[in-house]
Structure prediction request, 827 residues.
Amino acid sequence: MRLAVTDMPEHFPAQIADGQTMSVFPRVINLALNCDRNRRSIVTIDARDKAPLAPGTARLTAPAELDFSHLVRPGTDLAVRGGILRIHSADLAFDFRGAAPVAWEVRPTRPKPNQSRLSTGWIDAWSLFIDAPDPCGFAAALFADTQRSAFDRALARRVRATVPDFMRAGADTSLPDAWACLRRLLGVGLGLTPSGDDFSTGFFLGFERTSHEPGQRDFLHGLTRATLTQTHDSTDVSRACLTHAAAGRFSAPLTGLADGIVRHADNLPTRLANVLEMGHSSGRDAAFGVLCGLAVRNPDLRARVITQLNNAHMQEKSAR
Amino acid sequence: MNMGTRIIADMYRDSVALMKISSAITLLDGVSQASCIMATPANLDLLREAGLIDGDPGARPNEVLIAVEAETDTALGAALDAAEAELRADPVIADGGGDVSEPLRSIEMALDANVDANFTLIATPGPFAAAEAFKSVRLGLNVMMFSDNVSIEDELALKTQADQAGLMVMGPDCGTAIIDGSPLGFANVVRRGDIGIVAASGTGLQQVSCLIDAAGCGVSQAIGTGGRDLDSRIGGITTKRAITSLGADPDTKIIVLISKPPAPDVAKAVLEHAVATGKPVVACLLGHTPSEPSLSGVSFASTLEEAAYLAIAASGATGNKPGGLIEAALPGLNADRRYLRALYSGGTFCYEALTMLGGTLDAVYSNTSSTGIQTLTDPWTSTAHTVLDLGDDLFTRGRPHPMIDHRLRNDRIVAEAQDPDTAVILFDVVLGHGSHEDPVAAMAPALSAVPGQKDGGPVLLGFVCGTGGDPQGLTRQREAMADLGVLVADNNAQAVRTAAAILESAQ
Prediction:
């Protein structure tokens, strides 16, 4: 079966590349392509009828009944030749020849946000976020739960101890303090893109949307540069996402949420829902990051996050 | 309590899958805690905090780590096994339904069956070759065109299109290459090493690579370009791309360029391109007088033998110094026998001989044009000193190449021996993939029919272009030639010098 890709990452190696499938889901495949001796590129093939999960996504229209996980195993060799990506011993190929290359947004200049509108938008989004069912990843730390596994308990402790300090350091644009916190969050969490990495991606976006002073820009630049030095400690897929985030490229649902909060858009519930459905915990972690990033320099908003984390900790402690 | 871990390498699972497995394992009898995580340093840190691991388990970020705390060793082992089995469980893969035995009738079908392929070898009759080559380039494949009879307009369009796509078209009429150690077309079994060759000449490439092998050195890549690549109309497109590839190849330390006479402006551009790689360059552009003989970084060679010698020296080894004659005593000539008759199967050998003999012997005739050489009006009949390329279209029309089918040359050897003017019959024997499986045996009837010198016959002089690894056996072929009364040289240049010396000594 050959499926036509409709749009593809701007620098997709359309002529010759070899690689492997990394992870396979019913409608999504993550691929690692060896473009040349020194460059490895992560590409996501996305057949969902929704906004792309991350920069570097190639999208296509596929039959509704198609389930990639029934056709391809993770770790299968693949090759790109002349715009067609073929997967070894699978009856599946992707035709990139008619695909439109998509350039991802890189930090456009934006007007300074109206603080009042930002605050009301943020409070609405925060309420929606807190009320969303089944909190997981970093967001689980916002709620008391005495039944967690040992790993999840340690993760919640880490989030509650680190995120408040991270936000304060961001407010002060203190790069050493912020980096000391962030490095304790990067790579933390289950799955292909650890929660800490998704949270950081969201935080970079949220912070960027409210940064207009040179000092704030320098702080963000320093933080993303420092992050890139530590991406080798994360998974390949996550490293690719963080690299995009550091360069100012974010997925459409995430920028939609951030911009919706800044403008206090009417459709915030939809915008948040679009983010929450990304992956299992990825969307929730990224949304949490966006909210934290937007709240950093507003003491009232920042306090809401910190208070929620502290309350959850106290409730859990007293329940024990 | 017993704690244990297991690492599953190159395993990617999303958080839902890992959480499900962690939960399932925790519910097993005797298990108190369990966790499956992607083993990032940060996650390992958390597991240490949670008391599930102690120290460094040695796992990397793209690996899954299973950590279990259990009441007994048995429960621990069972839990780790169960988690691993769950992680490794194959998804249900649908049968593609394709018939793998279906014959491949197109390049696309071949690609579907061999997804990693990045190279097409085209050996169709000439009129169809260009179409297949264009198709290959559109499919993102590099091309080697063994076929000839492709128009120069098609060659230019093809090479331009390929170059723009970052691909290489070797040929048309590219008979020899060694890519990543695989001999393609007519090529010898040459050991791998640090010398990269770019050649617009098949037998030139074979000769140099065989001499490199004989000196204990080796070849990283040997890229054929097709004989017209250095024509001014093509402009060396493939040669430059091949040089760029070798320049970027960490396994290539020295670059050797081989060709028949190139267009001067193209030669200059190609040499500058080679110098720009920063690697030592040996250039054997037969019949070409460099406009800048002292071009920095380039060592010019006038023969294939010298090119091999310079490359071997640059590689840090010692080869046979060029310029010598065969070690055996030179035979005298009988009666009025005074002319050389060189009968080559390799076109570049013919051309090399002409460049060497042009200023040495008077009245040299050939079916190949070269400075100071006269053109044979009838290539089927020799005149004075005659040097023939029997691989020329004139001789191969409707019959296999003389490296495969020796009948034409055998007939010519017998005919030349019967000519009372023939003093020396010089010939090449080319071994390797694609060539005759036992060439000297195939030539034996003709060579045996030549009267020995004691009986007033001409001198038989030959050389074998091959390596010890070739399927025909270099030593066996050389010994068989010697047994048939042939003086055996090490290479073409030595054979030509020896022939000239024999003729000169008789004067």
Notes: The beta strands of chain A are 2-9, 16-24, 28-36, 39-46, 57-60, 77-81, 84-87, 93-95, 100-102. Chain A touches chain B through 61 residues (CB under 8 Å). The longest helix of chain A spans residues 150-171. Chain A has a mean pLDDT of 89.
